[in-house]
């Protein structure tokens, strides 16, 4: 099935009433979650993961895609109107968006953010449509050494790009890999670290870990924070249309942000957040009007385009290689694994309804978000007034019911509670939880790939370097790890030489 026939088939799947309903629900839920500070798309998808057990996998994937894209849209609303980033990827939008709102241009900022998100989302989906099938065909040449190299280098790159302390990131990766060893050993079949609990024979389930780390810990962190007084900037529908000059100034940043976001999305790490930072940095360097920091519309258009485009980019390695490069993609991968579907290069040929249906639904969902986000901006903005003492108990109840309903296991509730407390403690100590989650998902696959590679090569570790693809990937990983250290060592030497010369 070629690209165009695949997309036509995908639209026939996505336009069924049930899938349209799930796409719409995902868009609405995602927008609301993007507006409400704290929970974010990752926590929301973790909370709703248990519900997808009763859905068709295509419907579950469409729901989660709508949530992810919707959260990127919704986060800009409160950033511009309230100076509060509803989602981590909207932190950069606060800088220029709120200043525009204070100058009476909130409507223009919201319109540019929404339309820029739509354009960027469309560009990234075109890239996903073209790149994912091609990469899936290339991935058929991958063997165990290549899969281990991709996963290992992905974790290396993420440890560098999370923005936190490198040692802390590596510790989180080590903890996630250790948790991935619990259960039955994949080759010999003996039990490891089960402590006499038969339910742990299949390993630690992803669901209680994700719900605990991102749901329970969020409730605990939010409970400590005092309620703030929020001043909502008013905006009327007829004020949403930017001036011709604002459109001209926004066009370039939207296109640049779209491509920056898509290619950053292909890199392991919190891609929507990184993409907004890169886009803002680029636009500030290209600034010709001297308005950055005072309400430059380029500082809204570029980052908002970049965070939406990064979502489409993040789906490429998951759909083509079966490897999640972000924690949110790890949750999306769990939807497939729940239904016994292995994402990867064979997904397109074995499950064309799912593969093309999800991609087509993203086009439809992106259009839905544009249609109802602009007219209802005032309604969505008022959602943030929901008291946290009402919202957080609902989140806690969803966590408890959701995790128990999957296996009817009290052990899962205890695991979720334990990881919730652990997540709260780690967040207070400024540890990033994303590397832990990704390492937990990738750990079993890495162990299995390593064992299979050793069996193929009869214990020869050089197989990872001798094979061209895996050797190249490992070389890239080594450069990513070593380059910052070399730069940090060379910079003082250059500055000292410059000083001595002067």
Strand proportion = under 5%
Indicate the overall shape: globular
Provide the low-confidence segments as ranges: none
Biggest sheet overview = 2 strands, antiparallel
Mean pLDDT, all residues: 80
Strand order of the largest sheet: 1-2
Gyration radius, rounded: 23 Å
Summed up, the helix count is 21
Short description, anyone?
The protein is mostly helical. It has helices spanning 3-14, 17-35, 40-48, 57-82, 91-102, 106-139, 144-161, 166-179, 206-224, 244-265, 271-285, 298-321, 327-338, 347-350, 352-373, 377-382, 388-407, 410-428, 434-457, 463-466, 468-501; strands spanning 183-184, 191-192.
Outline the structure in words:
The chain is mainly α and 502 residues long. It has one domain. It has 21 helices and two strands. A hairpin with a 6-residue loop joins β1 (183-184) and β2 (191-192). α6 (106-139) packs parallel to α12 and α9 (206-224) runs antiparallel to α17 (388-407). The radius of gyration is 23 Å and the shape is globular. The N and C termini lie far apart (66 Å).
Jot down its keywords.
about 500 residues; mainly alpha; two-stranded antiparallel sheet
Layout of SSEs?
Blueprint: H1 3-14, H2 17-35, H3 40-48, H4 57-82, H5 91-102, H6 106-139, H7 144-161, H8 166-179, E1 183-184, E2 191-192, H9 206-224, H10 244-265, H11 271-285, H12 298-321, H13 327-338, H14 347-350, H15 352-373, H16 377-382, H17 388-407, H18 410-428, H19 434-457, H20 463-466, H21 468-501
Antiparallel strand pairs: 1-2
Helix pairs in contact: 1-15, 2-4, 2-15, 3-4, 3-9, 3-13, 4-5, 4-6, 4-12, 4-13, 4-15, 5-6, 5-12, 6-10, 6-12, 6-15, 7-8, 7-19, 7-21, 8-19, 9-17, 9-18, 10-11, 10-12, 11-12, 17-18
